[in-house]
Amino acid sequence: MRVLVLGAGFGGLEVTTLLSEEFGEDVDVTLIDQSDGFIFGFSKLEVMWGRALPSAVHHPYSDFVKPGVRFVRTTVRSIDPVTKRVATDAGTFDTDILVVALGADLHPSATPGLVEGGHEFYTVAGAFALRDVLPTFAGGRVIVAVTSTPFKCPPAPSETALLMHDYLTTRGLREGCQISVVMPMGVPIPPSPAASDALLVAFAERGIEWHPNRLVRGLDPARKVALLSSGDEMPYDLFLGVPEHRVPLVVEESGMAVDGWISVNSRTLETTFPGVYAVGDVTSVGTPKAGVFAEGQAAVVAQQISALVRGTTESARYDGHGMCYLEFGQDEVGRVDVTFLSGEKPIGAFQGPSPSLAADKAEFGSSRIQRWFGRTWPVTSSV
Length: 383
Ligand SMILES: Cc1cc2nc3c(=O)[nH]c(=O)nc-3n(C[C@H](O)[C@H](O)[C@H](O)COP(=O)(O)OP(=O)(O)OC[C@H]3O[C@@H](n4cnc5c(N)ncnc54)[C@H](O)[C@@H]3O)c2cc1C
Fold this sequence. Notes:
Elements: E1 2-6, H1 10-23, E2 28-33, E3 37-38, H2 41-48, E4 59-60, E5 69-73, E6 76-80, E7 85-88, E8 91-94, E9 97-100, E10 105-107, H3 114-117, E11 119-120, H4 124-133, E12 141-146, H5 156-170, E13 178-182, H6 193-206, E14 208-211, E15 216-220, E16 225-228, E17 233-235, E18 238-242, E19 244-246, H7 249-254, E20 257-258, E21 261-262, E22 276-278, H8 291-310, E23 321-329, E24 332-339, E25 349-354, H9 355-373
Helix pairs in contact: 1-8, 2-4, 5-6
Bound molecules: flavin-adenine dinucleotide.
């Protein structure tokens, strides 16, 4: 049984690790990614705020060594989901089982004026560049805004506003600054009223302005104003945006995407093509786009593949459960636990914020690096 996994992010690393743990050399797994290493989404923020060096949050795929798994660094150029044939810069791959875990591509240039007149903190390049930009900011109006939906890690803009408050306070600039958050939702974390309330209280305590139910559609760099979906304009001195998300072009061209994302059976992660699964941000499975959900989906796919290899019937079903850590700043972290696919309205339980949950978040990161890359890793490193 040949298994080909496209994308070595949260989903791809987890499904290949589980298959290796179960079958070792008895299964033929190939993992493809165009990058040279893995970086957690939350590590982008660590680098951006100068809390970690870029090299400290980069996990080279050369360290991803698993029995039965071959890692190939190359770019996927085409996917035929019918024949399960994948063309890459390193040649063509045929497989029995295909797992598409290629994530969401980010398009800063899709928002007029963003590249010319603002910054984005979602790509590795954008977040890492901000590490040098933020120290040059002399104060003024800061906008943290979402430019389109869906977008990954829905708490990240709120976290960024709170961490910006800390950053400006430490630099002695906070009094002369205004921080505004522009979000498409009515509350920061819609499935968790308790987490939303805690964030709105934290915003109010810190004087952060909350602008719900709108997007920033573009920037006018000449006038330094953000153009909102509501028709309003907001002046800014520093603009930090969440760029537009799309499936990678190779997925779009494969014909697998329906209404922008790969449609899957939400319980089994099967696509409409036999022997082809999809997990994580590339899908429209019904959970938010976040690593914890990609990881949970990968576990179900690994069990499905295991059953196919063993010739047994697999009953593992994805339930849409995940938990998310929320940076509140001041070295405190909150936690939301929520289940999306139970058939009932998801209600996220909320804990914290507290320093002990900050330690739990650190453990979350280091445990993944230990399992995937076989080494210890601190979540942050001093610079
Ligand atoms: C600022 C920020 C903070 C975040 N914080 C959190 C958090 O605290 N918790 C959380 O759970 N999630 C968080 N996330 C979201 C999380 O990073 C993503 O949801 C998660 O990585 C999705 O996993 P995935 O496996 O679907 O895709 P990804 O992890 O994006 O992996 C996709 C892989 O596919 C590869 N790829 C794409 N196209 C090609 C191609 N054509 N050829 C070869 N390889 C290709 C990419 O190089 C990539 O490695 C955050 C995201 C951001 C931006």
